[in-house]
Specification:
3 domains, two-stranded antiparallel ribbon, disordered C terminus, 5 strands, 49% helix, 3-stranded antiparallel β-sheet, mainly alpha, hpI Integrase, Chain A
């Protein structure tokens, strides 16, 4: 590609320096004349003929954006006063076209000829439009809007980086970009990607609801704090019976405003405390499996090929407190001889080892070891079930529980609660190791005793095995069940963190 084929690139035969040159569209040339703006925008791009094609095209694209701003400003000029932020942006564009730096008047004495010279360049014929007789001198000219003139003068007396006007919509857009980047970092599988996208869709709706409620206000300390307090009050009235729902709806708005204040509009302080603690909802009671009547039935179902693969894995999850969301993020490559890594080593948050109960459990975990990996190099122990929605997972597990145990009240959440209940019956639920095995913080420093990767040590895995054997003791024997609690085949694993 030659230089002459680059659109809007001006090449001077008498100079090595390159420039941008582009004519204004016909529909706005009249307005440009009225504001004494050139009909052809010509600006140096700061590069010579020796620059690379990539550098030149990037510079041209930057100037195209400025050109678009000029066109937008001219097209909106007939509307009179526009919002404060837009006026500031228009003023910046005007100074850019006129070739004047923001803050040009800061160190210039008003009595100095240079002061008037800068004003004349910035405003051209409009510098005196407030004086008597201006209309007679320029009968065919349109006055520059007063708010635009004021904004230009303000910028001339303000250092770069200051005088910015921020809006709630800026904060919302900044938060969206942050969340999208976060999703890209956390997306370690197709299933995880879809899970994150579904969660973000809900969060985005909550953020948009706040914007509808508050309106697109200027991003100031008072406006932010007042808007959040009013929205909090609104949500508490809307969700009178569910403070948790009110909190869930409030979080994205508060997070968006606080992040923008911390990272962009640093002169704004979002200080409103948004705790929703005055009202507490009653803790939702999760039905648990009847240990005597129903658990043996589920145990048999877990060993029955007629039941769904994921449902069977979830039943085995009773003995470790495994969530369905954790199981679907468990990679087949993280299944070892006597344990697997719940959530997988690619998971950003802390994971934990789970003892493999018996040979049936091991075979279920390894069933998809030859399954084609997704674009992230991930193959879930749940197979293609992993890319389904949470509601599909929940229904599948609930249906399996009803079919096996005949109890319509049991849900996917019942399983983790059943594990804790089983631990209470066996008298081990308060043991620090039990709590660690279920993924809870014991609060007594047990995790510190083993260090960052201590839960993967032989000693800790042996303790997990002993606890697991205690939990399954008394359940119907299976042909492929382990005959003893021998742990000699445990492979120590210390993942890099």
């Amino acid at each position: 590609m030659t230089l002459r084929k680059i659109k809007y690139l001006k090449i001077d035969n008498n100079s090595d320096w390159l420039a941008y040159q582009r004519g204004l569209p016909k529909d706005i040339k009249g307005k440009a004349k009225a504001m004494h703006l050139p009909l052809t925008i010509t600006r140096p791009i700061g590069l010579t003929k020796g620059a690379s094609i990539a550098q030149i095209t990037a510079a041209i694209e930057t100037h195209n954006k400025v050109f678009d701003d000029v066109c937008r400003m001219l097209r909106s000029s007939s509307e009179g006063t526009v919002n404060k932020k837009q006026v500031i942006e228009d003023a910046k564009t005007l100074l850019e076209v006129r070739g004047i730096e923001q803050g040009a008047l800061i160190d210039v004495d008003p009595g100095h000829p240079a002061f008037d010279g800068i004003l004349d360049t910035a405003f051209d014929i409009h510098v005196d439009q407030g004086k008597h007789g201006w209309e007679q001198h320029y009968p065919n000219q349109q006055k520059m809007p007063e708010d635009l003139m004021s904004a230009v003068f303000t910028l001339l007396n303000t250092n770069k980086g200051h005088g910015e006007v921020h809006l709630f919509s800026d904060a919302a857009e900044h938060y969206k970009q942050y969340k999208q980047q976060e999703m890209r970092l956390k997306a370690t599988s197709e299933g995880k990607t879809k899970q994150l996208q579904r969660a973000w869709t809900k969060e985005l709706k909550r953020l948009n609801d706040f914007m509808v409620f508050s309106g697109n206000q200027e991003f100031t300390t008072d406006n932010c704090n007042i808007a959040l307090r009013l929205y909090r009050k609104h949500l508490l009235e809307k969700h009178q019976s569910s403070p948790a729902s009110a909190k869930r709806d409030l979080v994205p708005a508060a997070a968006a405003l606080r992040r923008y204040a911390e990272e962009v509009a640093i002169n704004v302080a979002v200080t409103t405390k948004l705790t929703i603690g005055e009202q507490k909802a009653n803790a939702k009671q999760r039905p648990v499996v009847d240990i005597v009547k129903e658990l043996p039935l589920l145990w048999l179902a877990a060993h029955d090929d007629a039941y769904d693969h994921m449902f069977r894995l979830h039943v085995f999850g009773i003995f470790s407190g495994s969530h369905a969301s954790e199981l679907i993020q468990s990679d087949v490559s993280d299944v070892y001889e006597d344990y697997f890594i719940l959530g997988g080593t690619k998971k950003a948050t802390r994971t934990r080892p789970v003892v493999i109960v018996n040979e049936t459990h091991r075979q279920l975990l390894r069933q998809f070891k030859d399954y084609q990996k997704d674009k992230f190099g991930f193959a879930s122990v749940c197979g293609r079930r992993a890319i389904q929605t949470e509601s599909n997972h929940s229904k599948l597990i609930k249906d399996g529980l009803y079919e096996a145990a005949g109890n319509p009240a049991l849900t996917a959440y019942s399983m983790r609660h059943t594990g804790k209940h089983l631990g209470e019956i066996k008298g081990v639920s308060r043991l620090p190791t039990f709590q660690r095995m279920f993924g809870w913080s014991s609060g007594d420093g047990v995790q510190d005793d083993y260090g960052a990767a201590g839960i993967y040590s032989d000693a800790m895995l042996n303790e997990f095995r002993a606890l697991t054997d205690t939990l399954i003791d008394g359940l119907p024997e299976q042909p492929n069940s382990p005959t003893s609690a021998d742990t000699s085949n445990i492979v120590a694993f210390k993942p890099q963190r």
